Every structure is written in structure tokens, then in C-alpha cells.
Amino acid sequence: MRLIYGLCFVLGLLLAAAGMQVWGAAELRSHFNEIAFLTIVGGVWLAVATKLFSWFGLSLRDDAVERKNWPALVALCGAVLAVAFMYIGGNLGEGPSYWNNFYSAGLATVSFFGFWLVLEIGANVSASVAEERDLASGLRLCGLLLAMGLVLGRAAAGDWHSAEATLRDFVRDGWFAGLLCAVAIFVERRLRPSRRHPFPAWRKAGLLPAICYLVLAAAWLWNLGRWEGMSR
How many other C-beta atoms are found inside a 10 Å radius of the C-beta of residue 1? Predict the structure, then answer.
């Protein structure tokens, strides 16, 4: 369990390093030590996020490692990669300082956890994953978190002008993540385990909705197009 999660953790850091090398600020791309520094910060970012996941009903140690809960592991892997996408997005584009990157990535990450909290209040999805060990629920949550991470990460990307402009652009490009969250609340209430359907089919009730979330996120990213300053 730890190994699989660790591989996702490392994959997120590798994607962060690659993203900054290809689409980061020009000064950043020309200095390996700066990319290495921001990648290390990314590791701390993901480690802190991993601790926060337990606040939303999913614990790597308690659910995945000790209880061998595979649905929880699937959801947690999606969560850590989603946070990596948002950290990557916050580090894409030109800006005068590291703090601009952290502001953008922090804006996306806080919004992500805010939407997850709304989902938890509205549908109590963690109970289906952690307590009932429903694989379909774990897959749906994984797909949703990845989709929101992609949307919010894209919303955080772009050249820096000011904190106000960054916030305005973030809301304009990232509101779609809130729509996905609202749709997910409805979907969870319909597809979660119940007395009539205690064991939902993981392909139809789990994998298919997860793919739909990701397709919707991909369509939104295609609609937004290139972010400001994106190199060709």
C-alpha cells in the first residue's frame, strides 16, 4: 500500500519537475538548482496534503496501510496526483518571485479542499470508501479529484500580473471545478451503496463516472486553450 502511494507521490514530483522545465519561467528553466528547489518544496507540499486527507475521512495509515482498504488507496492516489497537478499549475508562467508561484498553487489547493469539503458534507463519500470499502465509490472519488485538480491547476497557470488579477483569472477559469463537485454530489447520492444495491458494479457505477469526470475536465481545458505565456 505504501509503495503504490509512494509511486504516485514520486510521479507527481517528476511531473512537477518536467512541467517547470518545459513551461516554467524562462529564468527558472535556465537554472537546474531552482527547479530542484521547487521540486523539493513540491514534495513538502504533497506531504502536508497527505496529512490533510485524513480530515476528509481518508487516512493513508489507518485506511490503506493498516486496514488494507484498496478503494481508499485508489482515492488517495487520485488525491495526491490532483494536488501535484495544482502545484504544477501554480509554477507555470512568468513571475518575479517564488511567492507568486506559491500564491497561485495555494489558491488552487485551498479551493480543491474547499470543494472536497462541500462534497463530503453533501454526500458523505468517505463513509462509502473508508467504512463500506466500496470500490465503485473509490473510483468515482479518484476520478473527480483528478478532474478538479486538472481544472484548478490550469486555472492557476499563467503569467503573473498581480494578486487581484490572478484571483480574477482563477475564478474565471476554475469555476468549472465547482460544477463538477455539484454534479458529483448528485451522482454520489444515486450510486453509493444502499440497501437495494449494497454492492454497486465497479465498472458501471465507478469507472464509468470517473472517466466521465475526466472527459469533462479535458473538454474544459480544451475550451480554455493555452494559458498566458505558454511556450509553443
Answer: 18
% the chain with pLDDT above 70 = 99
Q: What residue has cell string 464509468? A: 208
Give the chain's largest Cα–Cα span.
Answer: 59
What is the DSSP-derived secondary structure letter of residue 78?
H
* Structural domain count, the chain: 1
Q: Residue 120 pLDDT > 70, yes or no? A: yes
Sign of CA dihedral 2, 209, 12, 127: negative
- Tens-place pLDDT, residues 134-174: 999 999 999 999 999 999 999 999 999 999 999 999 999 99
Please state, rounded to an integer, the average pLDDT across all residues of the chain: 93
Helix axis angle, 135-156 to 98-123, nearest 10°: 150
DSSP-derived 3-state class of residue 199: coil
Distance CA 98, CA 62 (A): 35
- The verdict on residue 232 lying in a domain is no
CA angle 109, 113, 118 (to 5 degrees): 145
DSSP assignment of 115-176: HHHHHHHHH-HHIIIIIS--HHHHHHHHHHHHHHHHHHHHHH-S----HHHHHHHHHHHHHH
**Cα(147)–Cα(218) distance, integer angstroms:** 8
Separation CA 225–CA 213 (nearest Å): 19
Please state the pTM of the whole predicted model.
0.95
Residue 229 has pLDDT above 80, yes or no: no
